[in-house]
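Re: the request from the purification team.
They wanted to know what the chain is likely to look like in 3D before they choose a buffer screen. I agreed to run a prediction and write the result into the notebook, where they can find it.
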Amino acid sequence: MKKILLSLAVAALSLSASPAATRWQMQGDGSIAWMPKEDVPHDDHIEMSGKRVSVVLRYGVDEKGAFHVNQSMVWPMLRTIPNNTHASLMRRFQWNALEDVQVNGRPMSNERVRKITLDGTLRTESQMWGGGQWLTVVRQYFPSTEQPALVERFAIVNTGQKAVSVESDYKNDFLMTDAAKGVDGSYTIVRHIKGEGRLLNPGDTLWMNAYIMAYRQSEDVANLDYDKELQARYDLVAALQKNLVLETPDEVINRMFAFAKVRASESIYETKQGPVHGPGGESYYAAIWANDQAEYVNPFFPFEGYAYGNAASLNSYEWFARYMNDEWKPIPSSIIAEGTDIWNGAGDRGDAAMIAHGASRYVLARGDRAEAHRLWPLITWCLEYCNKKLMPEGVVASNSDELEGRFPSGKANL
């Protein structure tokens, strides 16, 4: 296990707050949990990703203690028109599959959320009234690691004293997108829940499974094995957490690092030209930037020992290498649309310096001679480009800097 051991000499740097002032509590298994009490209503959000899908879950607890969620779906490789930086297929849903669950012939009611946990999934535990008694209800949301789907699992636990009859709806709703707005024509979006009904004795649990998925009409989509999907998600998170462990005197900082490590590592998408990291945020997918990827996240993955991250890093550098030229024209700031186009709207931002810096750090951290040979022409081209742009004062001229004019930068990227 690789570990970073840091000593923080100044106690004032600690971010730890008193438990009474902290909504989220750290758990012994590496998760964080919120037990809603007087701190409602409150809304929050989290983004999670797999190789073919990303989702921003906007969730919260209302003033009565009930849970709500909005599923903001992104399919990075289902490209829309115009096929620009932001042309991933995106849809938002306000889908609560539990609304269609009947207990003794009636909907459940009076929800009281007891716990919300972030552990690589979003998991909720609630009490709901059904069949004349209180039942425990569990929800769990997470992206498939390989399929273009958000997986949703629900459990009804009979924590009462008498048996109840539980019935859940069967749905297979299809939404066909406008063919004129898709690079590959119309896309199919499916909301699916497998219906089931049975008697639930005291102590029994009934699991129900659902998903939101999108795909090209020409694609054959595999059936989801929900147990395997959940295990694959947990396996990925566990693998990411076991390497490059940050240890400081402040457990909040350690946990922040662990969560940030998962978010950085899961946000890699399997484009038609190989894996690349994407910033996400419902805007930036299946595309790379000289700062976000080349300079920032790519050199991180070798320290983490994450093979898929290393593959994405090498791939993105080779995307940039296509734009080396004998005329010493600037390399584009961003390569978009699965590697098929570029964005260069801010001109030269000092991108060659960013790429040279990041690629140098990547090959040094990676320690792979073959990869270093592959990237050496890109590194030396970018450094020579900077040499050719030197101003009399000894700094490198550029049109703007990484902030793209948000603050004045003059004629040099400092």
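For the purification team: The chain has seven helices and 24 strands.
Please add any questions underneath this entry.
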